[in-house]
């Protein structure tokens, strides 16, 4: 019982430098408590998961999310979870104002990788230095290459895991 009180907080580093306030409104159709601005990304994750035979039920998993100023330097997102009934994703407001669609997707999928799939970090890189997984911490030495041409590979890796 005591163990369930321990939260694991994962953070992801990406440089950002802009500020703006956008209100969060819960999306009623998606389940969980997820702001409208994030809903399309959470839906995409659900659809990709289902392509890989994984059912994601945000209500069932008690997934909540918000966009908020994280005030942690270059941190773009975080997942706070006890692996059971708490799965909270925070996306940094400054990062959100500045990031491209694909980078937003990478960060949200990364945090959902922690909070929903239960994955930890993986820092492995290919010979050319590119990260093998979007589950990299952002603190290691590998380079991100989450571009359209690589998207299918990274999504497969996300749901298939390390094997
Ligand atoms: Zn992480």
Residue-averaged pLDDT, rounded? Answer: 85
Q: What would you report as the Rg, rounded to the nearest angstrom?
A: 15 Å
Which structural class is indicated by helix and strand composition?
Answer: alpha+beta
Query: Which molecules are bound besides the chains?
Result: zinc ion
Order of strands across the biggest sheet? 1-3-4-2
Task: Tell me the number of structural domains.
Answer: 1
Helix-residue proportion: 25-40%
Shape field: globular
Count helical runs: 4
Which ranges are low-confidence, i.e. pLDDT below 50, for 5 or more consecutive residues?
1-7, 15-22
Reported for the largest beta sheet, the result is: 4 strands, mixed
Order of helices and strands: EHEEEHHH
Distance between the termini: 32 Å
Strand share of the residues?
Answer: 15-25%
How many beta strands in the DSSP annotation? 4
Task: Outline the fold blueprint.
Blueprint: E1 8-13, H1 36-51, E2 63-68, E3 75-81, E4 87-92, H2 93-98, H3 101-115, H4 151-160
Parallel strand pairs: 2-4
Antiparallel strand pairs: 1-3, 3-4
The structure holds zinc ion.
Zinc ion (ZN) binds next to strand 1 and helix 3.
């Amino acid at each position: 019982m005591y163990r369930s009180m321990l939260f694991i907080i994962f953070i992801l580093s990406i440089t950002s430098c802009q500020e703006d306030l956008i209100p969060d409104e819960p999306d009623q159709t998606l389940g969980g408590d997820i702001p409208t601005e994030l809903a399309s990304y959470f839906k995409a994750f659900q659809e990709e998961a289902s392509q890989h035979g994984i059912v994601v039920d945000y209500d069932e998993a008690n997934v909540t999310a918000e966009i908020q100023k994280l005030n942690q330097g270059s941190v773009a997102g975080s997942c706070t979870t006890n692996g059971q009934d708490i799965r909270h994703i925070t996306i940094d407001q400054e990062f959100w104002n500045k990031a491209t669609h694909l980078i937003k997707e990478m960060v949200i999928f990364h945090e959902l990788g922690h909070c929903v799939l239960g994955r930890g970090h993986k820092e492995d890189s290919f010979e050319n230095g590119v990260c093998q997984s979007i589950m990299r911490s952002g603190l290691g030495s590998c380079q991100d290459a989450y571009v359209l041409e690589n998207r299918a590979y990274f999504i497969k890796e996300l749901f298939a895991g390390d094997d």
